[in-house]
Write a structure and sequence with these properties.
Dna Ligase, domain 1, 367 residues, 4 domains, 14 helices, globular, two-stranded antiparallel sheet, three-stranded antiparallel sheet, mainly alpha, 7% strand
C-alpha cells in the first residue's frame, strides 16, 4: 500500500495549527466587531433622536405608567430613537422615578435631559390658554389641572365637581349622558369618567369651574351620542359603557390591543368570573403604586374587582375613543387572561396554566 494515503504527521500538524489560528483570528474579529457594535448602540442610546430638530411635542404620561410604556410613548412621538434602548439606558443610569403629567419635549433633547424633565413631574396644565386633559386621567388629576388654570386649589375644584346642585344641573342639561346612576352610594366621584380627555382653550380668565367642567361634559355627551345606537344594541347603559371603557383605558399600554383586552373582560363576565384588573384595586386604595401586592387585593371596596364580580360602580378614569370602540366592537377570542411583560408586550392565554407559564417566563424570571 502506498504511503501517500496518509500524509506525514508534520504536515497534518501544520494544517491543524493553521486552522486553529484562522479560527482564533475569526473569533477575535467577531469579538471586535461585536464590541464596536455594542459601543455604537450604547453611544446612540445617549444621543438625541434628532439633534437638529426644533420641534416641540406635547407628551402625556398617565398615572401608573410603567417605564416600558413611557419609553414606548417617547419612541412613538419621535422623542427617543428606540424605546428598548432608552429603557435600559435609564436603568443603567439608576433613574426611573418618573412623574405623571403633561410635558413639552423635543427630539433634540439628550436622554439625560429627558430623564431630568420626567423626574420633575411638572404638569403644564395650560399653555397659551390651552388646558390639556390626557386619556386615562382621573377626576382628582383633572381637578389639579383645572386648579392650575383657575387659580383655585384642587380641593376647591373637586368640591365643585361633587356639588349636588351642580350634578343636578348637569343631569338636566345632559339627560342622555348624566343620569341618576352617578348618584349611586357606592360611587366615589359622581363625574368620574364624564369629563372627556381633550385640549380645551380657556380664552376668558373669569370662566368658572362649572363652565370649564360643563364644556368637558358636553364633549363627552357629543362623543357618546355618536355611539348611541351601538350602546343601545349592546344592552349597556351609558353609565355602564363609560365604566367598561375606563377599565380598558386604564389597562391599556402603548402596545396593548384594546379590542383584545375588552374581549378578555367580556369572556370573564360570561362565565361569572371576576374581572381581576389591578387598576381597580389601585382606585379602591385611592393611591398609586408601581406594583399591586397580594395584600392589596384584600381591600374591602366595591371597586375591587378581585372581590366583586362584574363592572365597578362607576368609571375609574376617563377614556378615549379607542377604548370606547374596543368595548363596542371587541375582538372575538377565547382568552381569559393577559399580562404585560417588562418590555411592554402583552401576552394572552385561554387557561390559568398557560397564563402562569407566561408569567413565569416574562415576569418572575425577569425580576
Amino acid at each position: 500500500m502506498s504511503n501517500d494515503v496518509f500524509p506525514p504527521a508534520s504536515g497534518r500538524k501544520r494544517r491543524l495549527k493553521r486552522a486553529v489560528l484562522i479560527m482564533l483570528f475569526l473569533f477575535l474579529l467577531l469579538a471586535a466587531a461585536g464590541a464596536a457594535g455594542a459601543y455604537y448602540v450604547w453611544q446612540s442610546a445617549s444621543e438625541p433622536a434628532d439633534a437638529e430638530s426644533e420641534e416641540e411635542v406635547n407628551i402625556s404620561i398617565p398615572l401608573g405608567s410603567s417605564l416600558s410604556s413611557i419609553s414606548q410613548t417617547l419612541e412613538d412621538n419621535g422623542i427617543v430613537k428606540n424605546a428598548t434602548l432608552f429603557k435600559y439606558y435609564v436603568k443603567y443610569k439608576g433613574e426611573g422615578d418618573f412623574q405623571a403629567g403633561e410635558y413639552v419635549l423635543s427630539p433634540s433633547m439628550a436622554p439625560d435631559d429627558i430623564m431630568a424633565s420626567l423626574k420633575e413631574g411638572r404638569v403644564i396644565g395650560s399653555a397659551n390658554g390651552a388646558l390639556a386633559i390626557p386619556e386615562g386621567y382621573q377626576l382628582t388629576q383633572i381637578a389639579e389641572v383645572i386648579a392650575a388654570e383657575t387659580d383655585r386649589s384642587a380641593d376647591a375644584v373637586l368640591a365643585v365637581l361633587n356639588d349636588e346642585a351642580f350634578l343636578k344641573k348637569m343631569m338636566a342639561n345632559h339627560p342622555a349622558l348624566v343620569t341618576e346612576a352617578v348618584m349611586d352610594k357606592n360611587i366615589r366621584y359622581p363625574l368620574e369618567g364624564y369629563l372627556y380627555p381633550a385640549t380645551y382653550y380657556i380664552d376668558d380668565p373669569t370662566k368658572t369651574v362649572e363652565e370649564i367642567a360643563e364644556e368637558m361634559i358636553a364633549k363627552t355627551d357629543e362623543i357618546v351620542q355618536g355611539y348611541s345606537e351601538q350602546i343601545k344594541a349592546s344592552g349597556m347603559t351609558v353609565h355602564d359603557f363609560l365604566t367598561f371603557s375606563s377599565l380598558v383605558e386604564e389597562e391599556a399600554t402603548g402596545k396593548t390591543d384594546r379590542k383584545k383586552i375588552a374581549s378578555v373582560f367580556y369572556n370573564r363576565m360570561k362565565i361569572n368570573m371576576p374581572l381581576q384588573t389591578d387598576p381597580t384595586v389601585l382606585y379602591a386604595h385611592g393611591q398609586h403604586k408601581d406594583r399591586v401586592l397580594y395584600e392589596d387585593l384584600k381591600v374591602d371596596s366595591p371597586y375591587n374587582t378581585y372581590r366583586v364580580k362584574g363592572l365597578t360602580p362607576g368609571p375609574i378614569g376617563n377614556s378615549g375613543i379607542d377604548s370606547m370602540e374596543a368595548v363596542l366592537a371587541p375582538e372575538q377570542t377565547e382568552f381569559l387572561y393577559f399580562l404585560a411583560s417588562p418590555a411592554g408586550d402583552v401576552y394572552y392565554s385561554k387557561t390559568l396554566d398557560e397564563h402562569n407559564k407566561l408569567k413565569a417566563k416574562y415576569i418572575t424570571n425577569n425580576q
